[in-house]
Amino acid sequence: MRLVIEQSDFRRLSAQTRNELLEALTGKSLPGPRPAKPPAKALWREPMDLSPDLAVRLLHGLSQPHRARLALFAKKGTRVTQRDLLKATNDSDMRVLSHFQAVLSRRLRRLLDDPDKRIHLIGWDFDATKWDKSHSNIINGIYYVTEATARTLRNYFGRQAKRTSPKA
Question: Is the pTM of this model over 0.90?
Answer without folding.
Answer: no
